[in-house]
Fold these 4 entries.
Entry 1:
Amino acid sequence: MKKIWIIFGLLLSLIILYKAIFGSGSLFDSAVTRTSSDGRDKVFHDDTTARKDSTSAQEAASLGVLEGNYATKADSIVAFALQRYGIDYEYGGVTEEGFDCSGFITYVYNHFGEKLPHGSSEQAKLGESVSMQEARKGDLIIFTGTNPEDRTPGHVGIVITNAPKPIQFVHSSSEGGVKVSKVEGTLYQKRFLDIRRVLP
């Protein structure tokens, strides 16, 4: 037991020495990737219900997402989308190297044979419009861009909850990459435009 305390003391001393030499920043700062080059839309994307704190595999496990067969295509799409949790945002991205919001949607749905175009304005025209009260897993949720006054489509996600639960959605955000957010009580409520049902 005494050896354990000695080792612990040595490790603590090394960390303190490291911080004293290299500055007051976190020891792990260099491992953090900034996904927004200007941060202008941080206020719109800072309402996630889950944060990117570790690898995407660990995050998927913490969300209870497992590989396997699901009862419906919508459940499979939601599970597959959540398994991409933590992948970085990349403007124009449509691969696991990085996604923009509509690129993430295209990638996920194409995996299940649903060929969706890349572009939030195009995706906002797909399927049929349903009310928020009718929203269900696998529906697309359409928002404005970062300016809620401009009522044109600028952001899109995948609904991961069924009514009557409050709407939560998975999306690729310029602040945080692939993550889960909610609508009610957030700025996404002001930005909300439509729910589009693209699955039968």
Note: Confidence is low (pLDDT under 50) at residues 24-66.
Entry 2:
Amino acid sequence: MFIEQRIYTAHPGKLPAWLKAYSEIGGPASSRTLTPLMGMFTVEFGQINRVLFIRGFDDIDERERGMVRRDADPEWQRFLSETRPIGALMAQEAKLLKTVPFSPIQKVGQPFVKTIEGDAMFVDHRTYDFEPGRINSWLQAYETLGKPVQDKHLGQLLFFAVTECGPINQAVFAWAYSSLGDRDRRRAAMAADPAWGEFAKATGGLGALKAQNTLVLKPVPWSPIR
């Protein structure tokens, strides 16, 4: 499955108006002409005044056909005309990702089932940059040694994918928690587990990781993942 991830950066104070128009006009037009939205989130910690959203495609050629349909949709054109005067967006980034076999989400339209407790959700969104040629060894160690420990201690894994287009040699994945305190407690328990130390030992010698970046996200009210 392919995932298109977009991050839009807005001028301070202008994101709420853009989001309102997207929720009422642009989002419905996109989901009607493309594929259903998977998740949409605002950045709580990291570079703020940003919105991150993901949309899946089982057939990547369907994206191109959908873009043609969307551009011809009167409601999409209305969304563009109504948001242009707001002047909200200062930057846009798009990545094409491909899910790994152990990603919970694998198909378009797969219903999201929330397993964490409570009504709130905080998403720990991570991007790991790897040295060329070393990501597969790290992923193999993660699947066999690291992920079982995280499944035991952490919240809910939402998706796990690697970049297909955009900055390559990246893994992009997200875990959901009921609160920031929940995240902190769970990650402390993971770090104290000797099995996590074994994973760190197994991957430390690979020299695979170049950089790690974390965003804390909150789902918007209309996000399917929330």
Note: The first strand starts at residue 2 and ends at 10.
Entry 3:
Amino acid sequence: MTENLFTALSRYGVDAPGFVASTSALGAACTLAAAARPFRGRTAVAALGAGLLVQAGMYLHTTLHGKLRVWERELDALQLRGDERLLDLGCGRGAVLIGAARRLPRGRAVGVDLWATKDQSGNTPAATLANATAAGVRDRIEVHTADITELPFPDGDFDLVTSALVIHNIPTAPARLRAVDEALRVLRPGGRLLLADITPMVRRYAAHLGTGTVRDLGPAYWYGGPWLPVSMLELRKADEGLSGVRSGIDGPSG
């Protein structure tokens, strides 16, 4: 996941492409209007246009580079043995899935998605598998079309569950919490969950579960600015069930 911006765009696409396209278009329109001729409020319109373009630029940097760098760090920190079975919820075109598979020479990386292009440009199973082939990990990866609120896997099927900016796309709060519960259900006792999402959402997930650590992922994961930061919920599932806390990890924090 150390590709440059242009490679990342061709392989992994853009998150919520409609949002960044509309932000860029509005910013450009304001800037051009302010440059075209003098009028009352011209300075404010020019400032708005510049701000929107900066926001779009930061957004693109995050979706094409920043998030990949953050997930490299997070996956390295897991110190995987290499034989684990991993599930990536809402895998999209495979940025996290493929990064994990590179660390699982004797393991398996499974991705599930509904493949909505409004959530990620060019989002298809074929694109994900093509990216896995290009990365040399196709033999370790499988993908499924599945709703993450009703995962088609048995209890305790995975050593590790990951998710990157997916659960907030689910339209209702009860369904989002079902997805979090499903992530815990398919995790084996002692298994680990890494769930990255918009910070206020992550705090709600942690409060719902009553366990885990919430930590800010920093400016590299800002979608346009500090007003839309991303945090990580991390926990280890205890042997006695869903309510256990990973050894050494405190309760929810922000």
Note: Confidence is low (pLDDT under 50) at residues 241-254.
Entry 4:
Amino acid sequence: MWIVGLILVALGVAGFLMAQRTRARRHAMIAAETLPIAELEEHRRTLADLGTVGGFRKVCEVVGAAHPHSDGPLRAPQSGVECVWFRQTVVHKYSEQYRDSDGDWRRREQNDTVLDDTSRQGYALVDDSGIIGVDPNGVAPDRPEKVHENFVPGQGPSGGGFFTSGSQSLGMTYTEWVIRPGQRLYVLGEVHDRIGPLVIGKPESSSEPFIVSTRSEEELKASAAGAQRWWAWGGAAVAVLGIVLVVVGLL
């Protein structure tokens, strides 16, 4: 019993840490300014006029519509949907035999991710005052649009059928998410001019969050507040229960 108690205490501590992380993310959104792109460009030009080229840094929020890279829009590999960003996954579903605690043979379904691929090409954000590049840096945006999900039965990595003794391939699930051109985005990150034009991307400081979302700032802050309460109260309850089990188990 005390071992279970220790596990619950560890889960409670993890819940507390998640609450702190969510709180920091929410406070970062509250503290950051939402700036028009033209104002950021004006600050960059002022520094350039003073002889500081490529040294502009500003952590802030930018809101605008997604716009394709100068090379043109991407095409999502599975659906062919025109987009500025995509993520595709391929998950292999199979069943396998196992022995339960009584030694009896049983069968269970398992999933194995065969492919999880995200586009790396940058895109842009456009507001009423200008345009700024977005460097996704491999970070998946919050709440992208799911445009494709298809389960193909009877296919596995080796072409289908039984692939190991006692295991059977059930099929493959193909799923895809995108950000379409014109999608309104909220971005919290660091604006810089290291490559010349202004780009917003992941901050150099690991303590600063990088958020790209199809939700508004207000929706994100409300969601973070709810998650913070859930992690804090849930973690506290689990930790208290764990402490009780440890004490009882040791008595």
Note: Helices lie at 2-31, 37-49, 217-250.
